[in-house]
Amino acid sequence: MYKRLKELREDKDLNQTQIAKYLNMSQTGYSKYETGENDIPTKILIELAKFYHTSVDYLLELTNDPTPYNLKK
User: Fold this and answer.
1) What is the pLDDT along the chain (73 residues), one digit of tens a residue?
2) Which of 24, 38, 40, 44 could form a disulfide bond with 32, CB atoms 3.0-4.6 angstroms apart?
3) Dihedral, 58, 60, 61, 66 alpha carbons, nearest 10
4) pLDDT score recorded for residue 71
5) How far are the Cα atoms of 6, 18, 57 from residue 1, in angstroms, in the given order?
6) Is 35 within 8 Å of 28 (Cβ atoms)?
7) Fold of the domain spanning 2-59
8) Long-range residue pairs from 20-29, CB within 8 A, at least 24 positions apart, any chain
């Protein structure tokens, strides 16, 4: 899962600081998610799935299909 987060971020040519700012947290805190040092809270997983236009299942590597679910508005 952690490798997938890094790959998604790098595919968009973003750095950890930019993602951390989007999540309203420190770069160090976000870095610990990418390295697996800290578990990612559900709320953050949802925000990342929305940001990357994918599903939480894709982030968690439960599927290789990045297609997002139909989200509630």
Assistant:
1) 788 999 999 999 999 999 999 999 999 999 999 999 999 999 999 999 999 999 999 999 999 988 888 766 5
2) 38
3) 10
4) 61
5) 9, 20, 10
6) no
7) 434 Repressor (Amino-terminal Domain) (1.10.260)
8) 22/47, 22/51, 23/47, 23/48
